[in-house]
Amino acid sequence: MAEEALECRLRYGTEIVDEDEMLVSAAREDTKAAGRLYDKYYGEIFRYIYHCTFDHSVTEDLTSNVFLAALRHIGRYKWRQIPFRAWLYRIATNEVRMHWRRQKRSKAISLQPDSSSQAEQNREFESGNPSAGDSVATAEEYHLLYKALLELRMKYRTVIILRYYEGKAIAEICEITGRKEGTVKSQLHRGLARLQDILVRWGVLPE
Predict the structure, then answer these.
(1) What pLDDT was estimated at residue 127?
(2) Based on the domain organization, do 60 and 146 belong to the same domain?
(3) Strand pairing partners for 134?
(4) How do residues 23-81 score in pLDDT, each as one tens digit?
(5) Which H or E run includes 15?
């Protein structure tokens, strides 16, 4: 029955249900379908959480938590409210938020990212991704950009990472965060302004 649900082309009126919806429907009864969702989104969610924490070990743990939570609550997921990808990002954002709440406020943040992801970060910098890092000229300054992001409040850091590191459109950020378009745009503007202030204060950007 689950395999039939996975392969059939379900329809609501004339709308063809996409792959994710078929997988979600099947995953409620079939672990193989859940595994396909995991394989499809693990890398994307891992990258997002890493950009939020800059810690490889923490990212592994939180990413595992995301998919465990998704599987546990998949029966309550409502497709018509938000797409499955956005739902996963919501869970991931909540996991990151809880992680930072568990950390001591006085804990020092390391200047250097962990070595296991150093090469990946340098490739991102050199690739010219559209981000606040475009104005930063060296790898060392790029690492300072990461540190500066961690200085921002969670709400600003989240929208900046989603927009400039994950390449999400404003509409998708609204789905992920549950915020209105005007709020997302305002938080992007304020977050970037505060990020620039930090980088100017640290001497990374000119005044």
Answers:
(1) 43
(2) no
(3) none
(4) 888 888 887 778 889 999 999 999 999 999 889 999 999 999 999 999 999 888 877 67
(5) strand 15-16
Alpha helices in 54-153 (DSSP H): 56-73, 84-102, 118-126, 139-151
Question: Amino acid identity of 72?
Answer: R
Q: How far is CA 204 from CA 39, 112, 113, 131, 191, in A?
A: 39, 15, 17, 15, 17
Tallying the residues shown for the chain, one arrives at 207
What's the structural domain count of the chain? 2
Residues 52 and 17 occupy one common structural domain: yes
pTM: 0.75
| Domain match, 14 and 93 both | yes
What gap in Å lies between CA 12 and CA 60, rounded to an integer?
A: 37
Q: How far apart are CA 111 and CA 88, in angstroms?
A: 29
Last residue of a domain, one of 58, 92, 107: 107
